[in-house]
Structures are given as C-alpha cells and as structure tokens.
Write a structure and sequence with these properties.
Radius of gyration: 18 Å
Shape: globular
Order of helices and strands: EHEHEEHHHHEHEHEHE
Number of helices: 9
Largest sheet: 8 strands, mixed
Structural class: alpha/beta
CATH topology of the largest domain: TIM Barrel
Strand content: 15-25%
Distance between the termini: 15 Å
Number of domains: 2
Number of strands: 8
Helix content: 40-55%
Length: about 280
Amino acid sequence: MIDLHMHSCMSDGTDPIPELLRKVREAGITVFSVTDHDTMEGALEMERLVKEQCPADVTFIRGIEFSSITEEGKCHILGYGCDRNEKALTDILEEGAAKRRNKLEKRLSFLKEEFGIEFEADEMSHLRSMNSVGKPHLGNMLVEKGYAEIRDEAIEKYIEPCKTETDRLDGGKVIRTILRAGGVPVWAHPLGGTAESELSIPEFEQQLMTLKNFGLMGLECYYSRYTIEQADMLASVAVKNGLRVSGGSDYHGENKPVHLGELNASGVPVTEDRLSVLEIISGDR
C-alpha cells in the first residue's frame, strides 16, 4: 500500500510521529510521505524513525504541503524529496511560519472583537508555540470551551468570517523553491480538498496552466475524496500535460474522516504502477 499525503500533530493532524508510524505499519503501507502544512519538522522526525525502526522494504519520502495562492485562486502544493538545507527552502518556510502567526493573531483579535471570545494565557501560549497552527486547532478549542458542538461548526461560525484566505505563499515562488531544493512539486487535491467546494473544469484548467507554467511536475490524481472515475480522469489529464501522477489520502487523524491508504472514494486499491511520480522521487529504503 502507498500513501503520499498525510499529516501529523506537527501541523493539523492529531497523531504524534511515533503513533503515526505505528498506524502506517499496521495499515500495511510500505511507501509513504508525511506532508505537514508549511513545516518539515514532522517529516524529518519520521525520516529518523523509519531509518531506526523499519525494515528495508519500507520507503519513506520526505514531504511538505504549502498553502499557496495564484491569480487563479488558492491551491496547495506538495513538495517531495526537498533538500532541507537549501536556503531558499529555509527562507520560504520562515515566510510561511510568519504568515501563519499573522493569521492566528488576526483570528484571535476577530474572535475577541466580534464575539467577545478570549482564551486563557496558557491556551494562547500553546497556540503560539505550535509549528503550524491552523483553523482546526482553534476550532477544537472553541468546542472545548462550549461555543460549538463540533469543530466544523466552530470553524464555520467563528473562524471563517475572519477573511484570511489571501494571506498565503505565492504559488509560483513555492514551486520554484521546491525545484531549487531538488524536489518535485505536485498540485494537491486539484479538484478541491475535503470540506472544500469542487473546482469547475474551467477553473481547474486555468489553475493547471498557471501552475504548469511555474514548473509544476505532478498532479495528486488519486485522493480520498475523489471517485475512481475522477481519479482516472485526472491521471489522463496529467499524462496529456507531461505531468507525473501522484496519490494520497490527506489523513489527519481524528481531525478528518479519512483513513490511511484511502486513495479514492470508490474503495479501489491503487498500486505503485499507477503513481508515476514515484519514478522521480528519491526516498529512503
């Protein structure tokens, strides 16, 4: 089994890296990547653990997911096999972290001004200490404080009205940085991710051409939300455009109803030969 898109508690997943590795092994996944949002800390920790604990038939691929935007709209770009020591990558990681901190402060101010909601000092300190804090973290805390019954309700009611969607990394800069770091840039869930509205075909095609001109190398065609028909359609588009085919579940632990290794919504197994991106990504065996 293969899964090239999953998150740990280093971003908006719930599993610590050792627990995530245990679940990956239990699921029978032998080729995988950790792709936390705007941070590589989880991937680097996983890389160390795989080398120490896993047999030679397990392949781990260092990954990251950048929250990006172009003139066509927001997008998520996955980067595989990047050299963490490349200065351009270090710089953009710092830029991404600053944008996330800025969004957090905007949201905290919005909650206070619009709803009179304030967190305790220790809660604020915890949020500010996170590598990649996002809407799920705030949503969970709002549920714990009794402002909503479920996280999605809290996010929709209290966080979404605070408009921060344009405060993202430039998509062209992200792709160029991944390439400079020797990595492979892949457009994540190109028709829309979990809980996102689906892109129309014209919207998809416009964004695809924009990202391709920046140097995009792959499409995440096989994805937990997509039917096998949608996935195969995307794979055909990728081949026609000279792009590599990738696939991942977008597992977030308890924060999303998605299982490890779930690469389509039809329950069809996805074998290694369908994911041509594996031919150009270097991983540790």
